[in-house]
Structures are given as C-alpha cells and as structure tokens.
C-alpha cells in the first residue's frame, strides 16, 4: 500500500548552484513519526519545504495522500500542516483569532468546535483570549502547532520544534507530539537533538550532503549500528593495560580502577567471556561489571564520521 507521503528520486539544485538534495526517495506510512537528522546544511529544510510546496524541486516527484504536490497542489497542501522553526505571531492578536485566521487562509469554513478541541488538546484553551505577546515561549510554540492543525491536516511537519528551548519545555513538546500521535497525525520532524529523535520517532532518517543515507526503524538502527560498552571495575587499580592484553581494544578508565571494552552487539562472539578469563589469568580480580548501549548520538556521529573518512580517502 502506498504511504501517505511518497517521495521518489527527489533532487534540488538552487539557482546559486548548490545541490541541496540528490535523488532522495522514501515512503512514510500514515500515523508514523519520522525524525530527520543531519548536520547543518544537510538538506532537511529543503526536503520539508519541497513537500510543503514552498520550494520547487529540480527533479523527482512527491505525492501526499496520493496527490502530486505540483500538479495537484491544492489537494496535497490541504493535507499538510507546517510548524516553522521561527516563532512569527501577530503580537496583539488573541490566540483563538490567530488559529481561526489560519483556518480561513486554508479556505476552510469556520469551525469553532474543532478549534476549541485543538486549543484544549494543546492546553491553550485557558489562554484563548490572551494576546500572543503575553505568552511564554512554550505557549507560543503551541500556538504555532494549533495554527498548523487548524485545517485538520493529516501530516504535520515540525521543523526543529524544540530548538533553543529548555529541558522542561522540550519535554512538554514531546508530550504534545505524543498526543498528536494518539490522534493519528503523521509527523515528520527535523531535530539536532538526538535524544529527541530517540524519544519520539518510530523511524529515523539520516541526511548528509543532500543524500538520504538511511531511513530505518529506530530499534533496528540502534541494533545495527549500536555498540555496547562494558565497564569492568577492578579490585586493585592498574597502572597500565598488561602487555598480554594489548591490542584487545581495552581502555583504562577511572584512574586505573576500571577497564572499558567496546563490543559489537551483533557479533557471534562478543569476546567478553574470554576477556574475563584472561583478566583472571593475569591475576586481576574484578569487583563489578556493567554495560551501556551506545546512544543514538554515538551512532549518528559514527555514521557521519564514516562519510567524512570516505570523502578524505
Ligand atoms: N534559498 C536558497 N538558495 C540557495 N541555497 C540554499 C537555499 N536554501 C538552502 N540552501 C543551501 O542548500 C543546502 C541545504 O540547506 P538546508 O537549509 O536544506 O539544510 P538543513 O539540513 O535544513 O540545515 P540546518 O540544520 O542548518 O537547518 C545548504 O548548502 C544551503 O546553504
């Protein structure tokens, strides 16, 4: 079955000559949350802007709900809401009017019952008559979401929804997104916060230099690229890794009181049993062991670093 968004062989070269996207294809299912990650200038905003009809592609096609975004742009755009990164609100307008106007701009008839539902779901109903300049940063962002939802889109784009906001506000935003997921809205978000993607996304796409490096379910990505770190706490501190254990990828940490060992979770043999045996053979006694899964941040950094190494070769 075709996804709610079907992107096929999409490319964009700006007039300046910059190739911002190269042959990107992906399919997004209804109800999914997809996080797009990539360094600055990777092409994420260009991709979102093309789908939302703000930038014209130089090649390829995009369909939203089966509608081609160029030939059938009106129908495609009706299905889309965009929450931009920058907060731009009319400062002296009441919250409820901002949302009503946006709905009108989409050519939709007034529907105050629906707008009430949206404002309530975003915990803005009590603030409906406040002018936007009186709102906190977190509330303003929620007004942007309310505006983007005002015409009942099926797909919501969030461009760096929590850029520059504090941890408490970020968590609040995650809860809003979780609520939208429960309402069945398909969400595509860009973020520089890896923990955000790890927290919210079903699938993660990594874009670098205009190319989609991969798009995978989060769990699969972590399993495939993830490594585990084993920390072995020692009874007696070591001054150095014994010569017999050199070349085994061990690092002395905690001022010699621990040894860390990185291993591939997919490997047939992790080497842990052998390592513990070899430590015992050296007369090194172990106080405790613990393991830690590498974070998405580490996975992402290693992906981008591999690309840089390939480019340099
Ligand atoms: N209107 C434009 N005209 C010319 N070049 C542009 C334009 N918009 C973006 N670019 C270039 O296209 C490339 C991709 O930019 P884009 O904004 O899509 O990246 P991004 O992944 O969203 O970056 P960031 O994370 O910094 O927002 C960059 O090299 C950028 O300089």
UniProtKB/TrEMBL annotation:
Pfam families: ABC_tran. Keywords: ATP-binding, Nucleotide-binding, Transport. Residues 5-234 form the ABC transporter domain. Transmembrane segments: none annotated. Signal peptide: none annotated. It comes from the Bacteria. GO terms for molecular function: ATP binding. SMART domains: AAA. PROSITE patterns: ABC_TRANSPORTER_1, ABC_TRANSPORTER_2. PANTHER family: ABC TRANSPORTER ATP-BINDING PROTEIN (PTHR42711). This is ABC transporter ATP-binding protein.
């Amino acid at each position: 079955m075709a996804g709610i968004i079907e992107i096929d062989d999409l490319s964009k070269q700006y007039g300046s000559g910059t190739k911002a996207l190269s042959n990107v294809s992906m399919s997004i299912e209804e109800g999914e949350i997809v996080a797009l990650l990539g360094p600055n200038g990777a092409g994420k905003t260009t991709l979102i802007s093309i789908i939302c009809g703000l930038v014209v592609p130089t090649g390829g096609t995009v369909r939203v709900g089966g509608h081609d975004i160029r030939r059938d742009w009106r129908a495609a755009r009706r299905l889309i809401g965009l929450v931009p990164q920058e907060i731009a609100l009319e400062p002296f307008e009441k919250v409820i009017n901002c949302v009503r106007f946006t709905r009108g701009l989409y050519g939709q008839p007034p529907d105050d019952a629906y707008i009430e539902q949206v404002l309530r779901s975003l915990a803005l109903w009590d603030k409906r008559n406040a002018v936007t300049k009186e709102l906190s940063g977190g509330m303003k962002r929620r007004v942007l979401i309310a505006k983007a939802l005002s015409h009942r889109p099926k797909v919501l784009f969030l461009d760096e929804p929590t850029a520059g906001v504090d941890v408490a506000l970020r968590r609040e935003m995650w809860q809003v997104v979780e609520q939208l997921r429960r309402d069945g809205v398909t969400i595509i978000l860009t973020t520089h916060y890896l923990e955000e993607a790890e927290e919210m996304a079903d699938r993660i796409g990594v874009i670098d230099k205009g190319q989609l490096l991969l798009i995978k379910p989060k769990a699969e990505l972590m399993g495939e690229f993830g490594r585990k770190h084993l920390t072995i706490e020692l009874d007696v501190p070591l001054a150095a890794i014994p010569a017999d254990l050199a070349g085994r990828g061990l690092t002395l940490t905690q001022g010699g009181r621990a040894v860390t060992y990185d291993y591939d979770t997919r490997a047939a043999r992790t080497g842990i049993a052998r390592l513990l045996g070899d430590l015992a053979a050296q007369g090194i006694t172990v106080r405790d062991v613990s393991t830690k899964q590498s974070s998405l941040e580490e996975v992402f950094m290693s992906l981008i670093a591999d690309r840089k190494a390939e480019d340099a070769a």
